[in-house]
């Protein structure tokens, strides 16, 4: 006679439950693909930043440039270097997923999601701040007796960015929504580990 019949039945039921398993190979493939995209993106952004900084330096150091152009383009170049340095520093721990176990891989992917959200939030506020600063500078120039060509040149850039900034913002919202959805999925996977 088995006095633990109820316990045996409970044990059998518990052992027969379907266990949700994580497809580690699919997770590794996804993490590897995202890592390659991240590395290409960082190299592309850094190269583009270098070209922009070289252009700003050429304008600022040109013997034909006056004080206004030197200050404006020198400051823009310095802002670009500081911004890109921060973005590379932000992503410094996310370059490689090689040799990680499942938990560490999930943590890496969760960090990448958090970095994506921070990247777009910080980036959009930075761009908006830069645009507002240039707009304020343009308004200040209007109050001065500055050359009309200088005011018009700055105005052209400001008007172009009235279209470009919202388009980039929409893309950033889409990327942030993707990162949030991916984060929820990864947290559910981490709970299964």
Keywords:
83% helix; 193 residues; single chain; 0% strand; mainly alpha
Total strand segments: 0
Derived from helix and strand composition plus strand pairing, the structural class reads mainly alpha
Rg from Cα: 26 Å
Strand content: under 5%
Average pLDDT score: 86
* SS field, number of helical segments: 5
Largest sheet: none
What would the principal axes of the Cα set say about the shape?
elongated
User: H/E element string?
Assistant: HHHHH
User: Could you tell me how far the N terminus lies from the C terminus, measured between alpha carbons in angstroms?
Assistant: 39 Å
The total number of structural domains is 1
**Low-pLDDT windows of residues:** none
Helix content: over 70%
Give an account of the 3D structure.
The chain has one domain. Helices cover 83% and strands 0% of the residues. It has helices spanning 5-15, 24-61, 67-90, 102-143, 148-192. Helix 4 packs antiparallel against helix 5 (148-192). The chain starts with a helix and ends with a helix. 7% of the residues are buried. The mean pLDDT is 86.
């Amino acid at each position: 006679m088995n006095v633990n019949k109820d316990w045996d039945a409970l044990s059998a039921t518990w052992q027969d439950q379907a266990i949700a398993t994580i497809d580690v190979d699919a997770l590794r493939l996804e993490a590897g693909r995202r890592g390659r995209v991240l590395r290409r993106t960082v190299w592309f952004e850094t190269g583009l930043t270098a070209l922009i900084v070289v252009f700003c330096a050429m304008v600022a150091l040109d013997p034909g440039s006056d004080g206004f152009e030197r200050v404006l383009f020198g400051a823009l170049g310095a802002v670009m270097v500081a911004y890109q340095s921060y973005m590379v520093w932000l992503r410094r721990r996310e370059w490689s997923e090689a040799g990680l176990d499942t938990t560490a891989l999930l943590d890496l992917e969760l960090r990448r999601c958090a970095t994506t959200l921070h990247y777009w939030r910080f980036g959009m506020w930075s761009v908006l701040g830069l645009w507002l600063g240039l707009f304020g500078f343009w308004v200040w120039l209007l109050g001065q007796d500055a050359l009309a060509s200088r005011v018009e040149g700055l105005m052209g850039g400001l008007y172009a960015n009235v279209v470009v900034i919202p388009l980039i913002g929409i893309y950033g919202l889409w990327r942030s929504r993707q990162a949030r959805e991916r984060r929820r999925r990864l947290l559910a996977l981490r709970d299964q580990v």
